């Protein structure tokens, strides 16, 4: 069965984006000379799963940043909303996380990049996340989309490593403990 992996930046007050999905607060950080491992992480995954909000945010960047296949997990979005230039790169699915992972297994995908607050929460709830890198960004944005919301049960984590950078960002690598 494929494994889920998370790599997200989070404000110190626990948000991954503003309420309107904007990420402008990330651009304030002086990280040009720092390697937080995003390219290596992207190279390590076979497919990316994100929600429609994350998809729309990424589309707003102008240039599509992903070489790997992307699956937008949504109950309301349709394939017709994917522009022609992305049809070979992006697909829409309404499968539950468990069923989506089974479909990935059938397609030969082993490592899945799980992206976006609601999608991360659904994969965590289903027990489909193996590890995560959370980059703490030294900023308080006050409100927005949380990476982690309420959980029905505790999600126990084991700290694998912590690395701080001159910008003040801190990379925290966790492995989920077996239940």
What are the key terms here?
179 residues; alpha/beta; Dihydrofolate Reductase, subunit A; 8-stranded mixed sheet; two-stranded antiparallel sheet; 4 helices
Walkthrough of the structure:
The chain has helices at 38-44, 52-59, 97-106, 117-125; strands at 3-11, 15-17, 47-51, 70-73, 90-93, 111-115, 129-137, 145-146, 157-164, 170-176. It is α/β, with parallel strands linked by helices. It has a single domain (3-176), classed as Dihydrofolate Reductase, subunit A (3-Layer(aba) Sandwich), CATH 3.40.430. The strands form 2 sheets. The chain has an 8-stranded mixed β-sheet, with helices on both faces. Strands 2-8 form a two-stranded antiparallel ribbon. It is globular, with a radius of gyration of 16 Å.
Quick rundown:
With 179 residues, the chain is α/β, with parallel strands linked by helices. The protein contains four helices and ten strands, in the order ββαβαββαβαββββ. It has a single domain (3-176), classed as Dihydrofolate Reductase, subunit A (3-Layer(aba) Sandwich).
């Amino acid at each position: 069965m494929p494994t889920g992996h998370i790599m997200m930046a989070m404000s110190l007050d626990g948000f991954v984006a503003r309420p309107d999905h904007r990420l402008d607060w990330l651009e304030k950080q002086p990280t040009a000379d720092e390697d937080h491992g995003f390219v290596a992480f992207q190279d390590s995954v076979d497919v990316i799963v994100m929600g429609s909000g994350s998809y729309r945010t990424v589309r707003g960047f102008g240039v599509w940043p992903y070489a790997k296949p992307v699956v937008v997990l949504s109950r309301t979005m349709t394939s017709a909303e994917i522009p022609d230039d992305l049809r070979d790169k992006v697909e829409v699915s309404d499968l539950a996380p468990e069923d989506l992972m089974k479909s990935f297994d059938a397609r030969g995908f082993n490592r899945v990049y799980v992206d976006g607050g609601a999608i991360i929460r659904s994969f965590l709830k289903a027990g489909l996340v193996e590890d995560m890198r959370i980059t703490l960004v030294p900023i308080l944005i006050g409100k927005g989309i949380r990476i982690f919301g309420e959980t029905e049960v505790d999600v126990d984590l084991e700290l694998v490593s912590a690395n701080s950078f001159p910008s003040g960002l801190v990379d925290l690598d966790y492995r989920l403990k077996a239940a």
